[in-house]
Amino acid sequence: MSPVRRSLLQEKQKKSLTRSGVEYTSLESDNLNLDSPGQASPRLSSSSLNLNDDNKNNSGSPSSRPLGVKKSKIKRKIVDQTTSVINTLEEGNKHFLEQLKKSSEQRQHDLEIQKHPNVREYFEVVKAQILQKRGHQ
Hints:
mainly alpha; single chain; 5 helices; No apical meristem-associated C-terminal domain-containing protein; two-stranded antiparallel sheet
């Protein structure tokens, strides 16, 4: 096989190993003998290598977890965070509602006080004094 063709095949294989800007290194690409008939399909041996790697990961090594366990853990974490945010918002809404009720009660009380003629007259006198002081300044 010509050196040009060999370099083109190696370049093509490197492009197939690169995905989304991350380059995956292949030990097999360095030791490839393209002239031998046993290595007629380098992709086949590559995929068998990947299958063996997958079997090692699923054999129950203590450092890796099955994909389903990871997904369920992430999902549970998201649900817990969402629940926490919802609870915080509900507490804030309750506090805000209490403040609105208090201010509403205070306004109602002020209206009841203003109904009395003596109290109303006093407020009008104080208001006139305040406006007079502001006018002189």
